[in-house]
Amino acid sequence: MKCLDKKRIKMKQGETLALNERIMLSLVSIGEEGCPFIVCMTYAFHTTDKLCFILDLMNGGDLHYHLSQHGVFSEKEVKFYAAEIILGLEHMHLRSVVYRDLKPANILLDEHGHVRISDLGLACDFSKKKPHASVGTHGYMAPENIELPETMSNEMRTVLEGLLQRDVDKRLGCMGRLAEEVKEHPYFKDIDWKQVYLLKLTPPLIPPRGEVNAADAFDIGNFDEDDTKGIKLTEADQELYKNFPIVISERWQQEITESVFDTVNLETDRIEQKRRAKFKQNNIYDDEKTSDLILQGQLKKNTGTFGFSWQIRYTKLYPNRLELHYEKGDKDPEVYTMERIEHIDSKECKGQKTITIHLKGGNEPRLMLSPQDEVSWIEWKKALYDTLVASQQHLTVSEKASKIYGADVSSATSTNVNSNQQSSSGNHHNSLLSGGNISTMKKNNVAAAALQD
Fold first, then answer.
1. I need a surface site. Which of 27, 99, 264, 447 has the fewest CB within 10 A?
2. What residue range is the signal peptide (predicted)?
3. Catalytic site residue from 101, 110, 119, 286
4. Alpha-helical segments (H) within 95-221
5. pLDDT (tens digit, 9 = 90+) per residue, 74-122?
C-alpha cells in the first residue's frame, strides 16, 4: 500500500500531481490482467489525512539500488531489462499515456527479478492533446548530452542514438509503428518477445529474500512530522479528494478469488491431513506411490432398506476393484470387482448428487456414492468410468487371447482378483495387490502383442 500524506501534499502544492497519479494508474491498470511490467493499482481510497493506493507488491528493490550494489550492467543484462521496460511503455502508449519520468529509481524488481515501471505521478494522457511542459528528474532530463563509450557494441550504439534522436519525426519508435520499430532493431534480434511477455526469460539478478533491498531500511516511509505541524486541512482540501476512491473491478475480483481460494484450500488440506492421519492409524490409508492405487478418499454410501441414510466409507479405487472401508477399520472392506460392474451413471438421491454404479446380478443391484464436493464428484466419476472402460478392454483382449492361443489369461485374472480380495482384509495387503496386478498385466500385454502380430 502506497500512502501519501495530505498535509505534506498541501505543503508542496502537489494536489494536482496526486490526483493525476490516481487517474494514470486507473488507465494502465484496467483490463483482465493489467500489465506484468507496470506497478498496477487494484483500488484506491482516502482517510482523513492519507491518500492510499493498493498496488502490486514489489519487494525486490529498484534498479538504482541494484546498480549501486552490482556495478555497471553488461549489455546482455541491459537487454533483458530494456525488453521488459519496452513492453511496459508500449502498454502505456497504447492507452494514450506518456510516462515522462523514466529512471533506474522508478524501475522496481519483484521477488523473481522481473521489472515493473512505477510512480506515474508525472505521466499524462495525450489522447486529446500533446504535452508541452518540461518535466522529469534533473540528471535524466537531457540524456542526449551523454557520450557513448567506445566499448559499446554497434547495435547498442545505434539503438540508443535512434532513441535519443532530437528530431521527433526521425526518432526510433516515432515513425508510425511505435514500439514495433524498437523491437525490430538489430540490438533485439535474439529476443523472443512472446517469451518476454510471459516472463519466461531468466532475470540476470535475483533479489535476496528476507532482506530489505534498499540503501537504508530505516529511511523507508520515514518522514519528519515536524514539517507538517503547522498545516491544517480544511473542508475545501477534503473536497478535492471526493472522487479519489476507485476500484479496478477485474483486479479486485481476481484478488478476492485468489484470497478465498487460498483460504479454502488451506482449510481443506488441514482437514484432509487430519483424516489421512486417522486412516493411517487404522491401516486403511494407502500410499499411491507404493501401490497400484488410482484414487482414494472419503465418500458417502447410500445405505438402509429404503436408501434413506448415508454412511461414511473410506473408498479406494484400484485397476481391478473398488474397496469401501469402514472408518474404524474393524471390519473387512466391501469389495466390488470391475467384472461385477455393468455401467456407471449419475443422479440425485435425497438431495445428494451421486455416482450410481449398476452391478451385475447379486442381492445388491446398485451402489450409490456421494463425494463431498463438486470437484471430488467430477474426479471420482471420471476415475471410475475410465477404470471400468480400461478393465472391460482388458478382459476383451484376455478372452480373445484365450480363444486363439489357449492362454487362460481370464482365469489368471480371476484368481488374482480373488487373492487380492482375501489379502485386502489384512494390514499388509498392498504389496500382494501390487505384485499380483503387475503379473497379470505382463501376461495380458504378451497376449495383446500376439493379437496385434
1. 264
2. none
3. 101
4. 154-163, 179-183, 193-197
5. 999 999 999 999 999 999 999 999 999 999 999 999 999 999 999 999 9
